[in-house]
Backbone:
């Protein structure tokens, strides 16, 4: 049998809500046994079932909105289904996956569930049967619910082999992985003690413990105590898990399932079958029993069951070995979780292998001498057992009441080479690395709740580097509509940022939820923005930028004869000379743009200011990197050969204000038209000085630019002539490119030698080019690509894109990797799904544990009415059940308040009788509070409707709007985009039929 990795776990057991709480319960020797809650039944009415057991706190809680389930359907759903859905979500998160990323994949779901108690409780009154109860009461739907809501298309099956159900489910999941039916599988089980009925059966069979506690292998063992439980593991083929860099809790080395056949009775255990299933599992795992350090036994605490199991274990494990095989059973802590018993033991074992310590078995202090454990080569764990270095092996047994037995062999996770800098002592670069921590949720209130949970979890960690933790959050916490992201270097900063955000989060405004993807435009800065050491901080912090700057350096070096990268990061003053300034600025622009595109930021349009147009052309696909590098080096050399004496000034005047001054100074021109009152002049220095004096006298601001030449003026003619002799290989831009030479979008004009010659001596038409770009692509974000903030200031002054957010990944000399990270964070918050992996160096790509998603606890079912009634009022004869009556057989539900909804039908909508009727019909069918059914609400995504509910809605609408008449579902389908769209369709239909 091939090896299967356990890469994710989630569970809730009595007294242990979550994986860490479960491990803490086991290690401290705690127990989750309590009196029967009044919510379940009155224990005094059923003394034969006992007064105690293991019960999950808040087992009635279900965040139906998160899973797009209507309140009415949630109330009809089997609580087993309701527990499984959030458990599956958290397990996938624990596996390092955003659950939504698996939608549409052949992920398998295998769930062990015992019996169909919910169906018996809810479907016995035939007058109250509804379609929702029909689907909600089927135990067989337990796995299908997960597959449906997560959109998994792999194998999906519920398994009922009584108490061995969940371990059999794991066995089947492993088989499906090994045969290639799926690449990821969720496997486990669930059990809720809904009524005393099975407890009464145990009592009549003499199998019920008087105090409701299982005492496995103890002299005090007197039977079974029933308990709740839910647990799921995420399984992957071991080679796939290793290739993905997943954290591995343990490895399933082999498993086996068999049947007792005809024995002493259909519910009597069979020693020989138990012995055979152990032998078969070890044979399939390819190991000898003497290598197994411990066995998590079935261990129910019944006198006969314990004796038979120990005999079978001794027959297999009682072989010559250094120390006896340790045994224990988690049922001493939890009670018998029945359909979830196998997964409870499997998770305990996986955690023990992961932490390299096996918890003690409760009630082991009074070992049953009749079991003769020592003689059989076994020992009961009376204290925790540390596991030695190297591989450790363990077994897990689970036996069904009907004779289906299962055994699994687990091994510790393989040691993998630790990535440099991961854990332990880290390099300074690893400690100081920047990451982006992300959190997402389904509502604004849920985002606030989860920000607080993450802050508490991170605060519990030792303060240290945050990059690996950020990367894990990017993989796991990014799939929901309301988004938060913050760049940080260490966990202390992160805790502060999370708490601040949670405190400021506006749960009513919908803030933090993007309604589309950002539309970005890249603006490439030109000459004048250079300075020694530009982007050095980013180069130090960001390996991705280093890689792309090296690409540009390699393309420029053959033509420049020097390393522009060394010149840039070394703080070389030669960066002010055009020979080096222009290649350096091109390299920075190229590397910044490639860094962003590598992170998934694809521009909808680009614009380059003067020299910046070369990097813009490469980004747009109009020039290749090598071709642009050659041209830029040539341009810089030609410029460097020009005579000195020219310069440029920036003014706050428009061209019309400057026309007279320019006419009086031949050789002086408007070199850049950046905005209505933002013009750059170029020409001889003495002429510029005279113009400066006159403008200053008029109160117009003037600022000299740090350039040694009169760019974009007739003084550039020699350089332009040199560029015209070049042969340029170019192509039409693949990305819309706004030409600052033409002041419009580039259409079919080639970026040939003539273009670049004219571009160096003609004015830069920035304002009109930016206007054309905004009109063409309507950007939501303007991103400046350059080493200093220039173009965003120009855009802000010109007002061409007033609603666009401005971002700059490297805004000046103090910039580090933090500004790049904030750029990516801002775009994620706006709806982008970045390619996060590229943000992190290999040493930060380790899996880190994160707090699981915290679901809403505001909505509950069965909290006002017990499941089991000692007496029932008779139904009134002749009274038909209505849809509203159909749920009165179910426990009552407390609805959650509106989650940030806009004004509902009680507000402005009451002026529209059709919309009012539709809202009331939707509320009736779905069980939603009417104030939550707003016009914008979508039937499937927001309100959780399905095809059955649509049919019911059709009937409700026809009854409430008789003027509309009969409407077919086919006619309604196009209008089912939202509540408002349906109301509009019905309004039009009523008008058409009355005319």
Residues:
């Amino acid at each position: 049998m091939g090896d299967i990795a356990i890469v994710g776990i989630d569970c809730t057991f009595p007294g242990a809500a979550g994986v860490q709480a479960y491990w803490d319960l086991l290690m401290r020797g705690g127990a989750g046994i309590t009196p029967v809650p009044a919510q379940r039944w009155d224990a005094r009415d059923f003394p034969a079932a006992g007064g105690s057991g293991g019960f999950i706190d808040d087992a009635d809680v279900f965040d139906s909105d998160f899973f797009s389930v209507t309140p009415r359907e949630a109330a009809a759903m089997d609580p087993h289904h309701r527990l499984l859905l959030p458990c599956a979500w958290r397990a996938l998160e624990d596996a390092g996956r955003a659950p939504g990323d698996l939608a549409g994949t052949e992920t398998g779901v295998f769930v062990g569930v015992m019996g169909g108690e919910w169906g018996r409780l809810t479907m016995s009154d035939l007058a109250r049967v509804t379609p929702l109860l029909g689907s909600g009461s089927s135990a067989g739907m337990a796995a299908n619910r997960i597959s449906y809501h997560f959109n998994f298309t792999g194998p999906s099956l519920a398994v009922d082999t009584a108490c061995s159900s969940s371990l059999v489910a794991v066995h089947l999941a492993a088989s499906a992985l090994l045969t290639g039916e799926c690449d990821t599988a969720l496997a486990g089980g669930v059990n809720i003690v809904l009524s005393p009925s099975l407890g009464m059966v145990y009592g009549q069979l003499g199998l019920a413990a008087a105090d409701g506690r299982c005492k496995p292998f103890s002299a005090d063992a007197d039977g079974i105590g029933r308990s709740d439980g839910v647990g799921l593991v995420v399984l992957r083929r071991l080679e796939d898990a290793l290739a993905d860099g997943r954290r591995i809790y343990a490895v399933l080395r082999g498993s086996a399932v068999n049947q007792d056949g005809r024995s002493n009775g259909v519910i009597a255990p069979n020693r020989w079958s138990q012995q055979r299933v152990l032998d078969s599992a070890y044979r399939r795992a390819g190991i000898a029993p003497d290598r197994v350090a411990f066995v998590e036994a079935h261990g129910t605490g019944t006198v006969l069951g314990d004796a038979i199991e120990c005999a079978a274990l001794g027959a297999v494990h009682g072989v010559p070995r250094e120390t006896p095989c340790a045994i224990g059973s988690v049922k001493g802590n939890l009670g018998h979780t029945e359909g979830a018993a196998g997964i409870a033991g499997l998770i305990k074992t996986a955690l023990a292998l992961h932490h390299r310590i096996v918890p003690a078995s409760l009630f082991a202090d009074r070992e049953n001498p009749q079991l003769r454990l020592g003689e059989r080569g076994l020992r009961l764990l009376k204290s925790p057992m540390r596991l030695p270095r190297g591989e450790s092996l363990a077994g897990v047994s689970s036996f069904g009441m009907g004779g289906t037995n299962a055994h699994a062999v687990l091994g510790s996770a393989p040691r993998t080479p630790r990535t440099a800098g991961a854990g332990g002592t880290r390099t300074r670069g690893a400690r100081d690395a920047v990451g982006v921590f992300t959190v997402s949720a389904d509502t604004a209130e849920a985002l606030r709740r989860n920000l607080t949970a993450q802050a508490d979890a991170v605060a519990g960690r030792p303060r240290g580097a945050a990059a690996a933790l950020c990367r894990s959050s990017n993989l796991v916490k990014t799939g929901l509509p309301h988004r938060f992201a913050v760049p940080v270097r260490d966990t202390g900063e992160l805790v502060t940022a999370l708490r601040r955000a949670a405190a400021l989060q506006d749960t009513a405004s919908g803030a933090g939820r993007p309604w589309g993807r950002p539309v970005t435009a890249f603006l490439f800065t030109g000459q004048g923005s250079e300075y020694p050491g530009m982007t050095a901080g980013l180069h130090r912090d960001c390996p991705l930028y280093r890689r792309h700057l090296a690409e540009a350096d390699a393309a420029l070096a053959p033509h420049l004869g020097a390393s522009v990268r060394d010149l840039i990061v070394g703080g070389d003053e030669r960066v002010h000379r055009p020979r080096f300034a222009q290649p350096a600025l091109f390299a920075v622009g190229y590397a910044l743009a490639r860094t962003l595109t590598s992170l998934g930021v694809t521009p909808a349009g680009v614009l380059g200011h003067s020299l910046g147009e070369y990097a813009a052309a490469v980004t747009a696909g109009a020039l290749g990197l090598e071709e642009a590098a050659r041209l830029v080096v040539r341009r810089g050399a030609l410029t460097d050969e020009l005579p000195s004496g020219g310069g440029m000034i920036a003014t706050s005047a428009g061209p019309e204000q400057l026309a007279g001054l320019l006419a009086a100074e031949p050789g002086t021109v408007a070199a850049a038209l950046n905005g209505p009152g933002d013009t750059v002049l170029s020409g001889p220095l003495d002429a510029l000085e005279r113009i400066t004096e006159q403008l200053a006298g008029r109160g117009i601001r003037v600022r000299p630019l740090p350039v040694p030449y009169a760019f974009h003026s007739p003084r550039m003619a020699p350089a332009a002539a040199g560029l015209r002799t070049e042969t340029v290989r170019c192509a039409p831009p693949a990305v819309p490119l706004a030409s600052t030479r033409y002041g419009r979008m580039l259409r079919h004009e080639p970026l040939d030698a003539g273009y670049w010659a004219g571009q160096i001596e003609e004015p830069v038409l920035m304002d009109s080019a930016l206007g054309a770009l905004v009109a063409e692509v309507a950007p939501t974000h303007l991103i400046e690509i350059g080493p200093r903030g220039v173009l965003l200031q120009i855009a802000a002054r010109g007002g061409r894109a007033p609603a666009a957010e401005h971002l700059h990944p490297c805004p000046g000399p103090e910039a580090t990797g933090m500004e790049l990270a904030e750029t990516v964070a801002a775009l994620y918050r706006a709806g982008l799904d970045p390619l996060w992996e590229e943000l992190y160096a290999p040493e930060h790509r380790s899996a880190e544990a994160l707090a699981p998603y915290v679901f809403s606890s505001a909505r509950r079912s069965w909290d006002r009415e017990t499941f089991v009634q000692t007496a029932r009022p008779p139904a009134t004869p002749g009274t038909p059940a209505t849809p509203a009556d159909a749920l009165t057989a179910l426990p009552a539900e407390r609805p959650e308040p509106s989650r940030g909804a806009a004004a509902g039908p009680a507000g402005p909508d009451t002026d529209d009788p059709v919309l009012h009727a539709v809202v009331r019909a939707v509320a009736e069918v779905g069980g939603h509070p009417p104030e939550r059914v707003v016009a914008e609400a979508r039937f499937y995504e927001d309100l959780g409707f399905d095809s059955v509910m649509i049919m019911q809605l059709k009937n409700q609408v026809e009854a409430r709007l008789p003027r509309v008449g009969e409407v077919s579902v086919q006619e309604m389908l196009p209008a089912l985009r939202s509540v408002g769209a349906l109301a509009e369709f019905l309004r039009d239909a009523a008008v058409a039929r009355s005319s």
The chain has a mean pLDDT of 90. The radius of gyration is 35 Å. The chain is about 35% helix and 15% strand. The first helix runs from residue 19 to 27.
